[in-house]
Amino acid sequence: MSTPIAGLHHVTALAKSPQENKRFYTTVLAQRMVKRTVNFDDPSTYHLYYGDDLGSPGTLLTHFPHPYARRGVHGNHEIERTILAIPQGSSGFWRERLDRYDVGVEAAEAFGQSRLHFADHDGMLFALAEQDESGAAPVPVIGDRGGLPGDRALGRILGVAIRVREAEATATALTGALGFRAGATEGRSQRFTVGEGAKQAWVELIEDPDAPESDMGAGTVHHVAWRVATDEDQAEVGERLREARIGVTEVRDRFYFRSIYFRMPGGVIFEIATDGPGMDADEPRDALGATLQIPPMYKSQGAQIAAHLEPLE
Question: What domains appear along the chain, each with residue ranges and CATH number?
Fold first, then answer.
């Protein structure tokens, strides 16, 4: 079944210290902070966005940091690991870079692909995988990338690994209402892909009846968002979900994109997000992430909200 879902839009995780979050992603991973705003559903906390220099859909890692958050526990019913693209031939560079910042790295392999596994300072799990991105449109260098050479910078988000106790219902939802394509199987894991070419992304669905239950907290993923081009495409996916008896929210305006949310049969939260309006809806591209942006519905409370947030150096 064809689907309007073109690939991944962003991955959103919980974090603890806003300052340490900013340090890790802009210094260690050398991403650009492309937006500092607040959680639209809880303006007492930041919502920080990192990605390529334009904040392109498909490159965005976003975080809800809260200074009093407890550490999360990884396990079943969780978006467990986020897989990021690195340029061909750059694995050695990235291993050395992560070692230099005292980030533990382990070599791994999945679906015939060599990877580097590591965790951020809060315990969020990542994999780096070499990927030929030569077909993707070049992104101009605008912001500071921590001195990282352009030919070594992180690329897009390739996929996520999801661990569940029983995989059948989640697999059915992926290939049915969402239109993913079932792919290779490796042990207890199966890959499901969506999109084409430089936008293609995947879910690695791991069935693990023996794993403990996850407990959401700092270092765990709150949700993964899949991208669609238009509001009409989003409405089509929403209708398919309702036909499949999967409850879905009304459209929520996130200012930089519009979203619908739903919980998969395995318990994890998915979002369908539009590509636009984009990260430059309220800031010029050369100043993305430079200042705190208060969502329109909270503008009258902007000074009060800013005063209660932990300052970001």
Answer: 7-308 (3.10.180.10)
Pairing type for strands 32-39 and 181-186 reads unpaired
* 276-293 as b/e: b if 16+ CB within 10 A: eebbbebbeeeebbeebb
Length of the chain: 313
- pLDDT digit of tens for each residue in the chain (313 aa)? 699 999 999 999 999 999 999 999 999 999 999 999 999 999 999 999 999 989 999 999 999 999 999 999 999 999 999 999 999 999 999 999 999 999 999 999 999 999 999 999 999 999 999 998 766 666 555 555 666 777 889 999 999 999 999 999 999 999 999 999 999 999 999 999 999 999 999 999 999 999 999 999 999 999 999 999 999 999 999 999 999 999 999 999 999 999 999 999 999 999 999 999 999 999 999 999 999 999 999 999 999 999 999 999 8
**How far, CA to CA in Å, does 229 sit from each of 127, 262, 278?**
27, 19, 12
Q: Is 7 left (phi over 0), alpha (psi -120 to 50) or beta?
A: left
For the whole prediction, is pTM greater than 0.85?
Answer: yes
Residues in a beta bridge with 218: 71
